[in-house]
Amino acid sequence: xxxxxxxxxxTASIDKSIDFISNAIRKPQHPDILDxxxxxxxxxxxxxxxxxxxxxxxIIPVLMDIPLSRSxxxxxxxxxxxxxxxxxxxxDGVMASVYLTLTxxxxxxxxxxxxxxxxxRAILQRAETEPKELQKIVLAVDVLGEFYFSRGALxxxxxxxxxxxxxxxxxxxxxxxxxxxxxxxxxxxxxxKKVTSxxxxxxxxxxxxxxxAVCSVIVNDPDxxxxxxxxxxxxxxxxxxxxxxxxxxxxxxxxxxxxxxxLEMQQACVTLLGRLAELNPxxxxxxxxxxxxxxxxxxxxxxxxxxxxxxAKMIAQxxxxxxxxxxxxxxxxMIAMIPKMRNDQKYTEVTAQVLNAISEIAVIGGAxxxxxxxxxxxxxxxxxxxxxxxxxxxxxxxAIGGICRSTAYVVDPYRDYxxxxxxxxxxxxxVMSNTMRREAIKTLGILGAIDPYTHKVFTGSVQSPxxxxxxxxxxxxxxxxxxxxxxxxxxxxYEKCTLEExxxxxxxxxxxLMMQDEDSQSYAEIAQAIVTIFRSLxxxxxxxxxxxxxxxxxxxxRATADSNRANLREFFLQQLAIFVKIIxxxxxxYMPAIFTIIADAWKEDISVKMVVIxxxxxxGNAIGNDFSKYTGELIPYLLTVxxxxxxxxxxxxxxxMESMRLLTYCIVQHLHLVLxxxxxxxxxxxxxxxxxxxxxxTVLHMTSAVDVSAYAPRMMQSWHHNISTFEMRxxxxxxxxxxxxxLGKFFDIFKRGVDQKLRDYNLDKCEHYExxxxxxxxxxxxxxxxxxxxxxxxxxxxxxxxxxxxxxSAMLGNADLQERLMNGSIDSGVSRTDGxxxxxxxxxxxxxxxxxxxxxxxxxxxxVTVKISKQRLNKDLFTLxxxxxxxxxxxxxxxLLKIRIGFLKSGSSPxxxxxxxxxxxxxxxxxxxxxxxxxxxxxxxxxxxxxELTTSLLRALExxxxxxxxxxxxxxxxxxxxEKGPLPIDHKTLGxxxxxxxxxxxxxxxxxxxxxxxxxxxxxxxVDDCQxxxxxxxxxxxxxxxxxxxxxxxxxxxxxxxxxxxxxxxxEWEKALExxxxxxxxxxxxxxxxxxxxxxxxMPVSQTDSFAVEDARMHEMRCLEALAQWDKLNEKSLVWAGxxxxxxxxxxxxxxxxxxxxxxxxxxxxxAWAVDDWTKMAEYxxxxxxxxxxxxxxxxxxxxxxxxxxxxxxxxAHPYLGGYGRLPLMDLI
Length: 1229
Fold this sequence. Notes:
The protein is mostly helical. Helices cover about 70% and strands about 0% of the residues. α4 (about 55-65) runs parallel beside α6 (about 85-105), α34 runs parallel beside α36 (about 650-660) and α35 runs parallel beside α37 (about 670-685). The longest helix has 29 residues, at about 1070-1095. It is elongated and about 170 Å long. This is Serine/threonine-protein kinase TOR. One of its GO terms (biological process) is TORC1 signaling. One of its GO terms (molecular function) is ATP binding. It is an enzyme of class 2 (transferase).
């Protein structure tokens, strides 16, 4: 140290010091003492530099005779740095020592050509047993990278180190070899562009030979530390070095590391590729884009906190390394990450990493970040107050600062989130973490200053001068749901659908109405019947899906939510799967709702989960490749089982793996999520061997079905882990063969390790080994050919190699492999369906059929295959419709029920027959489907049987029982609209029966059809016909039709009785008054004639004549009231009142007479009220009964105008006794 600090003072002692050191190190010394001498030499050279060149040159031979150690290496390195003239001497000596240590042979003279030293197997074996030998080798390898050897010296040994020491058994040796190989390549890379073109190819071979070996370590080394060391060294290399790493062949190997089994390795690889993207964007960016999509999928669908945290780190690395590349995807990233900002304690680290990623994205986000400011800040302002995790609070603060800085969203956050400023100041006062306080101060600086008064306004401490108004929205009224059968009837009647279309449609509509009944106990039978119908429909089934699937989904959702219907959950889930299987891609609109039901059912016990998995599998098989768009919903359920099922037998796990085999083509886009859990199960030695074999079968099936070459490193790692298990070796060899077929030339990376494993376990003599050997040789040959052609050209491209590959396909014997070799890349998203061999059959089990729920519904095979012959049909039904001996009503109703069910069971339509078993239990279903069932039988029987059936129906009509008549009328109406109708029953008969049962619409229709039939025979419509039509029209409240009939009668001058009532119903009061006036005159004359005849014959006047006179007078008064002709009405009233006492007592005593007198009194009272004649009104009111509504109301009116008001309250309140319907009469008071 004295010589170091004062070199000039001790210059005279240099020779003595060197002689002393030289003599000391020649003698055998303890290593610690030697290290002291070497430390002195290190400082000595550092102090005197070139002044001691002669002395150091003399001691160099002595140093070279000493075994290499770390202290000696430091001394020699210092000599090279401080005394450039001795660099060559030191390099030669060190190289000779290193060469001897690593190869076991003396380094040849420089004049001799470069040769290949023998394999260092013995040296490496000694290193495994002797720690000193191991340290010696590690030091020698390190020295190769630390000393600045000449390219000629390095060229003798660098490829040797790359070939043997990068693949040594000891991890320390491999770690040192990785760093050393990277450093040794740097001098060659630096002069690559400076050398002439004739030497460039040989130089490129040297560089690529080492780089290829180092890159293979990324995916081939079993220790993650070594793999990480490669990525770390690559990241520290200069740009010219990275330019060689950015070549296609090197990139393909690095791409494989993106699916490494260790997540930190994937993150490091993304960081490296982010740097390489600038050098070769055409190859790197597409793969980064694919990796980004996989990362987003992993974040949104994995359901595992560890993977979500990893995804957030990957996104942050990509945003940091390749901001231009990430900018177009900011919107999608925000959609994926905002939901992951959760407050749950178990997701604390995930949220923190997501916030860090958002901070990085905010720098490049631009408008997309501005669009998401509100949802972001709503969560961030809450998280900075969450004291449960300091890490998350700090990340939230950093995110707020980054977003505000990048979007210029300053000061405004204080207004939008009034408590933000107080929260930040509270952090400064209460949080003790320096990092947190620093972030809070930084965030305050970014947000900017705010006026204190304005802040008080924002927080509500001071009233704002602006007013805020709110608006109320109008209530929304729901429209009533329509009966679906009405649409079908309309379709059948007016759009003329065929019977083959109508039968299933009406059956399904009735069954779905039954399913709407929440208290129904026949859900299973109904669903089974509908499934049977759909299966019988074949290709036309999808057009009926809109009727069934939404309702079935609703019932299934209700069953899933209702704990009392737990036994129906599995059944309905299975029925949904069957429907999806039948309608296939037409189920697309209903898939979101189905997955919602599955999400609810997934919370149940293991049996329901088993059914859910079966349902998902069946739907995937039914929809086929189109199911791929829904696998984003499917994957979380599968992954949840694979990652969380900890039961001993792993029943769910096995079920999921079997399902994955069947859905391989659908989940190909999610292999990055599916394969790792499968391989983890395969590697888990704590599991039963059968479970691991199931995982291996699943992986093998996927490998044979789709391209998994991008995941080859991860699969080969599992292969190495499990090849020691005897029971799995055969299938592992088949898996190895499949991987070779997909990797092609890139399998060369794994070949050495595979060969070693095969030798270790004596598998080089098994039945699959020969196929493996041939494929691996072809892969090696393709690599050698392409490599030689690449270096043969001047520009190092693949054009000549690709040309040879096109012409020499026989060399490979595999068109798919040849294709990938020519393209120079591996596409992980392309499935392979050609060129499979028998090995692909390993591990495929037959699909087990799901247990069926027993129901009373008839099976599909029974219904669809039944042939309805005429002979069988006649024999079965002939006894059913016989009704000659029936007498009582119960017998007739029983007959009706029997023919309904019998026709339903024996119809020609499979859809109707499917509902027959339900018709036995639910009579209303048999009733609703009877017209369709009758028609399906009617079209199959001959004319004689039809006549017999018609006779039976006529007998039923003659009974007069309303239910029988209504059923036959409905049947007749249905058949009138059918292409096979009508029912051969006379219209007059049907019309009379309809009138008896008060089915006036049908009666009117049959009357019209009867009239039209007569008009064809030139027979005019009669007065009775007009009377009937007007009666039906009035009953149906169809005034237009009645008016039309009246116009017809007038135009044809028909002598119509009671014409006034026709006009009255048409509200033509003037014509009615005229008609009633004529009736009054005629009735009065008739009555006078009868009276004169009675006097001459001493016989009483007919009661009918008296009633006709009074009735005509009452109608005349009603017309005057409607026309408001009060004077004429009052005159009529006076006449009525004056003659009331002289009327026929027989008329007053009859019920009709009293009603008529009551009506005339009410009309007279209203007429007096209209002209304020209260005396006459009181007189007329006295003739009205008090117990009627009109009597009570009119008495109340009279009481109002009397001087005494004491009874008014009682009288006025009296109308309230009748209920609310009479209250409007109070308005007249």
